[in-house]
Amino acid sequence: MGDKDCDAIAAQSHGLTSKDDDDSHIKQPLNILATLKRIAHLKLTAPKTELLRNSIFHMLSQVNYERECGASLILALREYFDAKCNTFKFNSDTSLKLCSKEAAVVLGMEDRGKDFNPFHYRSYFPRFLVEQNGGSEKILTKFTDSDNELQFRKLLIFFFIDQFLFALSNKHPRCSLWGIVEDLDEAESINWPKATLQFIYEELAKLDVEKALSNGQTVGAAFPVLKVMVFERISVLQPSLHTSVAPLLQKYNTDKLKLKDWRQKLRELMPENISPCEFCDKDVNEGVGEAVKEGFGEAVDDRLTKTPRII
To answer: For 128-146, what is each residue's pLDDT tens digit?
Structure first.
């Protein structure tokens, strides 16, 4: 690993890499901090992603699609979001409820592990990661040769957590999150899909559409994950296909509809437009299994035991 790779991660963590991150909420209604572009700008090559081959974060390291996260759909979804039950209610007949297993599929992880409690971890940056620069902290970009591989893995996973799954700032890395990756086994034991979806709901509930449209608003959370989850369940909303190759996060091209168009599309959705959750809607799944069994002699419905393929 060269210093250039660490420089890219450190610069991204400080909002120094992309002009698109600089006060973009002034130019557009919604500035979404977590974008695929942030990860793609790391330009991770195969030798670097190979370091996470056995990590639950490996699929995130594969993202290379330099795409922003369109704000219009997120604003429209907020207008139909019921924060009391974490459900999107589009009209009196049609609603959508998502689950952490769906988030796991999009992230390339499994929906299992411990609940995430950021207050459980010690708030600090180790000395080898921090230098004082005019009274401000900055992540170091050079390590000793013996520590290079391990520290790079820690820094990369920290980036995924701090700047994508739980993005709250594009300027300063949060020392409150470093303790999570100090022990990589601990970092791998957390149910990140569940925590990510919950944080998406929290940030969505805080979003004020009127404020965003009049003065602009910045939001954290991995909204690209939410959009793919919605597209996977509601095919009539899907934009054009970008790739059929994993990771699922970059399956679709950027959606370019305006807010008024998304509002209308969501408002006009009918129950039959929404595919059942293959993990939660047991009645539907059991019905499929029985139908297969009746026609072929045995049930071969394996949707609950295999990760859905990207088609």
So the answer is: 555 556 555 555 555 555 5
